[in-house]
Structure formats: structure tokens, C-alpha cells
Amino acid sequence: MTDIVIIGAGLTGLSTAYYLEQMGFFDYQIFEKESEIGGLCRSVNQDGFIFDYTGHLIHVSDENFKQFLAETISFDTLNTLHRKSRIFSNNCYSHYPFQTNLHGLPLPVIADCIEGFIKRKKIKDPQTFYQWVMKHFGSGFAHHFFIPYQQKLFCYDLKKISASWTGRFVPQTNLESIIQGALSEPDDHIGYNALFYYPQKGGINQLIHAIAQKLKNKIKTNYEVEKIDISRNIVHFSHGETVTYNKIINTIPLNNFLKKIKDKSSTNFQTQHHHLKANSVLNINIGINRPHLADYHWCYFPESRYPFYRMGFSHHFAQPMAPHNTSALYTECAYLNKRPCTTDIIKKVKNFFDLNDSEIITVQELHIPQAYVIYNFWREKYLTSLVARLAENSIYSMGRYGSWKYSSMQESVLDGKLIAEKLLHVTVNEAKEMTVSR
Ligand SMILES: Cc1cc2nc3c(=O)[nH]c(=O)nc-3n(C[C@H](O)[C@H](O)[C@H](O)COP(=O)(O)OP(=O)(O)OC[C@H]3O[C@@H](n4cnc5c(N)ncnc54)[C@H](O)[C@@H]3O)c2cc1C
């Protein structure tokens, strides 16, 4: 019997374990289906290049996360970077965010955006992302950036998703900032990701290793949860072993998790899984024998003629990501059903930078089956009660995929802290103070 079973050794699972141990609690076990820990925060070494599962940049806006980083990976091992991100549309580059950086775009595009903003409709309570864009930005911004870009990212009808995820991910603006951004040099200081951190070497996986090194309990890899018997509190693994538990902290995608619940009662979790929708991302990483392809960290591609919605250069985050005089490029293509063609993606990259075949040193294809959660109406209406019903069964579903949300690494860590404190009925600080005063 283990008091707390943590399913998944990604950032959420590991952070939870970290906080439990910080509070002096060790009656838990983490089970991970892969042979390697880290989930989406893994890094792959190939032909001298290091590739992440697309760019994984550390954005810090919370003091607890900051402290967590200081205690685990340490800021001494991180590069501090000021965002250089671009948007490529209308055959030219503009700066991110689009809404405050119209400078350099063709005049008709600028005029469209400003006119649309001035004439935007008063929509009282936007129910969909589409309405939300029309309300806050107007038809020009919608047409030239938001609709094509988000359509490409979510691969879903934008009139069928809510805007509840936008928050810090889509900075709002006003007429003064728009006009200023159209007339003057770009402002790179706006938005949640204007400043970020990245490990000086080894890729984002270094964060995972730093946390794991702090843990006393052993992480059980190659343990794939196959079935959960919630009436008898037993987790079954694919190789036949079982473990009994008091509580489960789930961090695997909620839809997959629901399918594993054996439930004879009326709550019927299994049947809910198909309402939870997420897109997939194909991440093509390319090692290129050319030192300088672009000066930005990453670039957004709203137009449909490019299969990727974003492309970036990880050696701009940390030089050792690519051998000397080469470039480590990544592209991200989202899809719902039909997986994009790798050859087409490479061809587009080659055309874009005018590359020869001989300059391609290596290609690494990484796949994220559940990448961006779709905020469909079902999610908005029923997710909270679904998660609450799981909690009634001593199952706490956390993290980007466990909670079924659009969130970053910071939230994964904060989710870990939150659930550890909730289950131990004490805050991390109180627990530490109690240890000191004992
Ligand atoms: C394309 C993309 C780009 C991103 N970029 C950034 C960024 O730049 N900055 C940022 O802060 N965040 C970024 N994120 C978000 C970040 O990746 C997540 O917030 C975080 O990594 C989620 O960690 P997690 O532990 O919750 O989930 P995961 O990393 O998915 O971990 C879940 C773990 O569960 C394991 N598992 C699955 N099924 C089972 C099973 N049956 N039994 C046992 N184990 C199982 C998996 O193998 C995995 O290790 C990005 C996400 C995506 C998709």
C-alpha cells in the first residue's frame, strides 16, 4: 500500500514529489510509463545537436516558481534571454505581439487593422474565441493574424471554442499603442514571455534532472498504468503488477486517464473521455550546416502556405544546443486527424532559407499526441464537475493535461505545490517551519 500514487514523471508529477518531500512526506510513489522521466520536458541528443519537444522556455511570473527554480536547477545554470520573436506574413517580418507591432507591414494591412479596431463591434459577453477577437481587436486584426494563426494552432472551428484560455497568452491593447506600434520601431517588452530563462547546456531536460536529483524516493520507470479499480483502490500496470493506494495524483492526459478507470457505479467516467479534445503537434527538428539563418529566437507563421505555425532556433537559447557554426532549427505543426508530411515540412524550410540538401546534417521527428487542449463548450460546462467527481474518489488530476488546460511549466510546478499542500493540509512554509522548530 502506498498512500499517494503519482501517475506520470513529467514536470507536474516530479514537482508534486518535490514539494511532498520538502514537507517531510515520503509515503508516495511515482510511476512513469516511459524508460525516461520528463514527459514533454525531455531533450534528445542526435549528431551533436540537442532537441527539445519544441522550444521549452522558462517564463517566470510567480515568486514560488522562482524559488523552486533557485532550489532545484539554480539561476546560475540558466541563461537570461530577452525575447526576439517575429511574425512572418505578407512576405515580411513584424514583431510579436502583432497587435502592438504593425510597423513594417504593408500599408493596406495596417489601415485594415486600425480601421477594424476603431469600428469593432460592442459584443457584451463573447461566448466564442471568434467573438472575443472581434470585440477586443476588430475585423482587421482578426483577418490578418488572430483567426488564421489560432485556426492553424488549434485546428478547430474558432466559433466553437471559448476564449477563457486567452488571459496572459493574448495581450490586449488600445488605440494609442496600436498607432504607436505602427509608426515607431518595435517594442519587444510586451507579453508574458518578454523575458525568459533557458538551461545553459543540455536542453530543458536539465530542469527535470535537477528536480529528480533532489528526490529521495526512487521513480518507477517502465510502469504504464493500464487500469484503475476505483472501488478497491488498486492501480494495475501493463506488465501485471498492482499497487493499492489511498490517493492518486494524475498527471497524464485526462481523456486517457478516464479510459483507464474501472467503474461500475453510475458516475461512469469512461464515457466522458471522448468529449475532451486536444490537437497533436508534429515537431520536426533540423540540424543545419549554416551558422546564421535568422536573428530571432522564434517566429510565428499565420499563413496557410506554411505547414508550421511556429519555427525557432534552440541554439539561440543556449549555444551548446548545436555544434559550432551550425544551427538547431525546430518547427511545430498542429493537426487533428491527418499527420502532416515531414518531407513537405523540410522542403518548406529549405525553400524559406534557400538551403541545399547538403546543408541538412540531421533531422529528428518528435511527436506530441496531445499538445493543445481544445476549449470546446463541453469543457467549459462540465470539466469542473468532472474533476470534482474524481476528487470525491480521492483522485486529483493536475497539470496541463491532468487538469485539461492551456498552461506552461510554471503552472505545472505550482500545481504540484498546490496539491501537495492540499493533501498534507499544511503549506510548504508551515511544514518547513515546523521542521526547524522541532
Ligand atoms: C508544443 C508545446 C510547447 C510548449 N512550450 C512551452 C514553453 O515554451 N514554456 C513553458 O513553460 N511551457 C511550455 N509548454 C507546456 C509544458 O510542456 C507543460 O506545461 C508541461 O511540460 C506539462 O508537464 P506535465 O508533467 O503536466 O505533463 P507531461 O509532460 O505530459 O507528463 C506526463 C507524464 O505521464 C507519463 N504517462 C502517460 N501515460 C502514462 C501511463 N499510462 N502510465 C504512466 N505514465 C504515463 C508520460 O510519459 C509523461 O512522462 C509547451 C507545451 C507544448 C505542447
Instruction: Give the CATH topology of the largest domain.
Output: FAD/NAD(P)-binding domain
Helical segment count: 13
Please state the second-level CATH architecture of the largest domain: 3-Layer(bba) Sandwich
Query: β content, as a range?
Result: 15-25%
The biggest sheet amounts to: 8 strands, mixed
CATH superfamily of the largest domain: FAD/NAD(P)-binding domain
Topology (SSEs and partners):
Elements lengths: L1 E6 L3 H12 L5 E4 L11 E4 L2 E4 L10 H9 L6 E5 L2 E5 L2 E4 L11 H12 L10 H8 L1 H17 L20 H9 L11 E5 L5 H10 L4 E2 L4 E5 L4 E4 L4 E9 L3 H7 E2 L17 E9 L9 E3 L9 E4 L13 E9 L6 H12 L6 E9 L8 H16 L2 E3 L1 H4 L6 H16 L3 H10 L1
Parallel strand pairs: 1-2, 1-12, 2-9, 6-15, 10-13, 12-19
Antiparallel strand pairs: 3-4, 5-8, 6-7, 10-11, 11-12, 14-17, 14-18, 15-16, 16-17
Bound molecules: flavin-adenine dinucleotide.
Task: Describe the fold and architecture.
The protein is of the alpha/beta class and 438 residues long. The chain folds into two domains: 2-78 and 200-273 and 380-437, FAD/NAD(P)-binding domain (3-Layer(bba) Sandwich), CATH 3.50.50; 85-183. Helices cover 32% and strands 22% of the residues. The protein has 13 helices and 19 strands. It has helices spanning 11-22, 63-71, 107-118, 129-136, 138-154, 175-183, 205-214, 254-260, 342-353, 377-392, 399-402, 409-424, 428-437; strands at residues 2-7, 28-31, 43-46, 49-52, 78-82, 85-89, 92-95, 195-199, 219-220, 225-229, 234-237, 242-250, 261-262, 280-288, 298-300, 310-313, 327-335, 360-368, 395-397. Strands 1, 2, 9, 10, 11, 12, 13 and 19 form an eight-stranded mixed beta sheet that branches. It has a seven-stranded mixed beta sheet with strand order 7-6-15-16-17-14-18. Helix 1 (11-22) links the parallel strand 1 and strand 2 (28-31). Helix 1 packs parallel to helix 7 (205-214), helix 3 crosses helix 5 (138-154) and helix 4 runs antiparallel to helix 5 (138-154). The protein is globular and about 65 Å long. It binds flavin-adenine dinucleotide.
